Amino acid sequence: MSQVLATRNYGLPSVVGSLDSYISAVHRIPVLSLDEEQSLARRFRDDADLDAAKQLVMSHLRFVVHVARGYNGYGLQLSDLIQEGNIGLMKAVKRFDPDQGVRLVSFAVHWIRAEMHEFILRNWRIVKVATTKAQRKLFFNLRKSKKRLGWMNAEEVRVVAQDLGVPEATVREMESRLSGRDVGFEAPADADDDDKPAPAAFLVDEGADPYDNLAEEDASKNQMGALSSALGNLDARSRDIIQRRWLAEDNKATLQDLADEYGVSAERIRQIEANAMKKMRVAIAA
């Protein structure tokens, strides 16, 4: 059952191609009510109705996009994260029990995040260790060529270099990367005074002049005051759009998110946003 669920072609929107088109497409898929979700989940659980499973998956694709955006800082493609999250969503649908009293979205977030985490762990270290095509080739070949843990001796280095057609120095450099470990740039929050200083402690503080710091702080306060005043002059809808699109700490709203909420097109939200930004620039410059 799980293999069928994971591999069957549902006709889901494809992440391959335009990511904006995919995101727009999944946001047009209606959200299920509680009764609809319960009915579909029971059809899939009791009758193995794959069409019901498809509807459950389709209605939650927008949530996968939302979760994937939270991992933008890892340097990986958003489309790849979405694809991995969709796999987690399908696994969640297979295991979901509608009689447990929770919504699918609450249950699925664990499986979605788990697949994304696994993908990041598989790719993050590789990105850091091997940054060119040649290095990536050596990385994978060296992993297969090493017969034991620990450092390679001179003869092993010579054999690997000969087999792969690279200089021995290149093999030693890659081995040092594979044998190394990541070091935090800043000290952990629970570090003691006796711990070895973190790399950040050895950097020169270019902003240590108190006069410069005071001037920057005063300028920042003035800018924040002007921004707050400009926001206050906007109508409620325009202010909400600007705050959620540009000033939210995380999970910034998309044009499509706001369009769905206000019952207008994404283009109309963009126009309101542009007009609001123009009014704010005039107010701040005054």
TrEMBL record:
Pfam families: Sigma70_r1_2, Sigma70_r2, Sigma70_r4. CDD domains: Sigma70_r4. One of its GO terms (molecular function) is sigma factor activity. InterPro entries: RNA_pol_sigma-70_dom, RNA_pol_sigma70, RNA_pol_sigma70_r1_2, RNA_pol_sigma70_r2, RNA_pol_sigma70_r4, RNA_pol_sigma_r2, RNA_pol_sigma_r3/r4-like, RNA_pol_sigma_RpoH_proteobac. Keywords: Cytoplasm, DNA-binding, Sigma factor, Stress response, Transcription, Transcription regulation. Gene3D superfamilies: 1.20.120.1810, Winged helix-like DNA-binding domain superfamily/Winged helix DNA-binding domain (1.10.10.10). GO terms for biological process: DNA-templated transcription initiation; response to heat. GO terms for cellular component: cytoplasm. HAMAP family: Sigma70_RpoH. This is RNA polymerase sigma factor RpoH. It comes from Luteibacter rhizovicinus DSM 16549. The lineage of its organism: Bacteria, Pseudomonadati, Pseudomonadota, Gammaproteobacteria, Lysobacterales.
